[in-house]
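User: Can you write out an input/output pair for a complex, sequences first and structure second?

Assistant: Here is one pair. Inputs:
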Amino acid sequence: MKGTTTLKDIAQRLGLSIATVSRALQDSYEIGAATKKKVVQLAKELNYQPNPYASSLRRRVSKTIAVVLPEVADSFFSLAINGIESVALEKGYHVLIYLTHESLVREKAILSEFKSGRVDGILISVSEETANGSHIREIIEAGVPVVFFDRVCDEVDASQVVTNDYECGRIAALHLAQQGCKRISYLCTSPALHISKKRMDGYREGLREAGLPFRETDIIVCGSSLTENSRLVEKILRKKNRPDGFIASVEKLTTPVYLSCPRLGLQIPEDVKLLSFTNLQAALILSPPLSTITQPAFEMGATAASLLFKSLDKKKRHGYNERVMINSVLIPRGSTQ
Amino acid sequence: MKGTTTLKDIAQRLGLSIATVSRALQDSYEIGAATKKKVVQLAKELNYQPNPYASSLRRRVSKTIAVVLPEVADSFFSLAINGIESVALEKGYHVLIYLTHESLVREKAILSEFKSGRVDGILISVSEETANGSHIREIIEAGVPVVFFDRVCDEVDASQVVTNDYECGRIAALHLAQQGCKRISYLCTSPALHISKKRMDGYREGLREAGLPFRETDIIVCGSSLTENSRLVEKILRKKNRPDGFIASVEKLTTPVYLSCPRLGLQIPEDVKLLSFTNLQAALILSPPLSTITQPAFEMGATAASLLFKSLDKKKRHGYNERVMINSVLIPRGSTQ
DNA sequence: CTGAAAGCGCTAACAA
DNA sequence: TTGTTAGCGCTTTCAG
């Protein structure tokens, strides 16, 4: 942004007005073919790049979207980013990325900035602390379309892309029951989270259908550190009425189970079975290979972005929105026999 | 960006000039405490958010940086993004993310856009196709500071943050040799890549020090699909002079080895040892647990960002740059006995 | 087909 | 301490 060439430079060099140059570069129909060619050529020669901020200011659009995520910790969000980026690129949009680190305060701070017109739309997966969506509604009311993906805020009227969390919770429980589990424990990090609740509800329903009792104490709320979580899992496995099956509702809760079992002389899947929500390729090479519920992470990201662009195109903003569900799949492997 | 309040609105409501309001909000020393208070309060009330693009246009800075990555595929880049974001946030900068998908054409297209002033600085990890850095040099000459991280382009004079790839390649070979390997194969995806070459050079040196011969045929260039790579590894393991040790210079090349060995009745680490460059937590729970060379991904991202902000602060742009190396660590586990 | 002119919202000289 | 004015680079009426 130093010796940058501007429209003015081109205009002067060619003895044209700035307006003409601008129009020529936009391939406006009302410009002579001859001048158009001249302009385009000189622009290329001088390596002209329009100043995006001047243009945004004038046009009142930024050609930029924001992606607001809790973290880029697990494989789900990594893949989702790829999906989002691929469609943004295609549409000629730029992608700003923000991490909330699961903090509502941060999420609010980030979103409040968007009333300024920095972005034309927002993709968000809410933090675990986000219970009410007033800060999100505010943004929508300010005219910036929002699309939720994965972690939604149901009370807010906006487009969303989710996966069948309830159904997967149910399937998970049923699958384990079918494999002979009598006591299935559910590992999660933040039970308040919408998707976590869905999965848990599904899990309860699955237990019911399988004729197994639900016990409050089988819901294990884990923390963030690996050692902490391992200790927790070991404690449970030492009980006399220990579970014989685990559902890890979050990728990172897989590790503590694989770590704890051998320490206590327990075998997977003979003594303890495990089924995890994860997209890790490494599931294949764990031993035994990990049974997973794999989310369509890339597709969810891409679909969310498409939905956002749809509402940007149509300027339908207020009112029109879509709710899409893309199914996850259960892939049974050795960890559930 | 509809009913957005502007400086003008505040000025009118308060009977002040726009300039005064602007200065008051910037806490300028030349504004009376009384008016300052009035202005700030009304701004808060009206939920005023300055238009960033107007401000960028005028000030000629965007408070935005670009992060250009090959992909968000492996754990390294995920962690690096977290590192970058954390320091950008602290400095009040916004982060645009771009993926090259290992394509030089894309990388060029992305970078050429940055001559327009969209970003104040760039963090980049180059694509595997990037051999010469002319497109990057162009950007730097246009006055936009660039910091390389991990995958650098040595011929370009810019700040960079790398890890000790050469040394790690060497250590890797020595470690395997020490554990008894006689024939160590090196798995990589793109041998042209700078860091890949460094690691490979280190590997050769390691072999030499260990008194093992280097064989061109022990360098295995893999592709991107898992099945393809597994077939490749199996083919090698079927040879009569098969390797008894592998170095996976890329995270995703771990899987084919873990997959192929049991298929051929080979045991890790008894028959085949494996050491991988990876940051995956799952290394802990593979069986046997995977020996790794773990890169300081978060720190590298954070350091690169710090370096960038340093050159932004000091406007030292041209000329002043720093080269930082942060060491990776070898963590021996079961896969190398 | 082309040009003149206004203005997007903000900042920063220069006045007062 | 505050206001006036010019202008960042671009788009877009409105004239010609």
